[in-house]
Structures are given as structure tokens and as C-alpha cells.
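Researcher: Here's a chain I'd like modeled. Treat it as a single chain, no partners, no ligands.
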Amino acid sequence: RHDVVVVAWFAPLDAGAMAAARTGAQQAGAAFVRVNVMTEPTAVAFAEDHGGFESPAVLVFTRGPKLRSRIPGTPDRDVVAQAAANAG
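Model: Modeled as a single isolated chain. C-alpha cells:
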């Protein structure tokens, strides 16, 4: 449904990254998906398809899917919102 999707790539201890990603996605009107790298069976394959990711990270995709931004660590929600807006 959305042209832009924000993905919070996190481990259970990375709640701050997930919250910033969710809020930033909302600010930009983008979709939000969270991927727990500890429990998602597709996480390894997903990371391998896109060059690997460290946790936590915020990823911004557009349709295709095309990776538009990879933001390592715990970014500020405004940084996430700007990356999502730039991707759209």
C-alpha cells in the first residue's frame, strides 16, 4: 500500500531504535515494519540479500524493493522521517 517502508532492524534490547523508527515513519507517512533479528526466521536471508546489517539499524525501502537508506545505530526520529521523506 505504501511507496516507502521504514524497517526497524533490532534485537530485543534495541527498543530505542524501534521507537525512533516507528515515530519517524509516522511523521513521514511511511509504512513501518519491525524485524527482530533474534526470532525472525527470514532475517538472515533478508540481510544476505541486502549486504548484511548490524543491529540496531533503520532501513528505508521503496517499492521494488529498493534499499534507499541504511541508518546504523539508534537514529533520532527526525532523521528517520527525513530519510523516509527523501525516499518518497
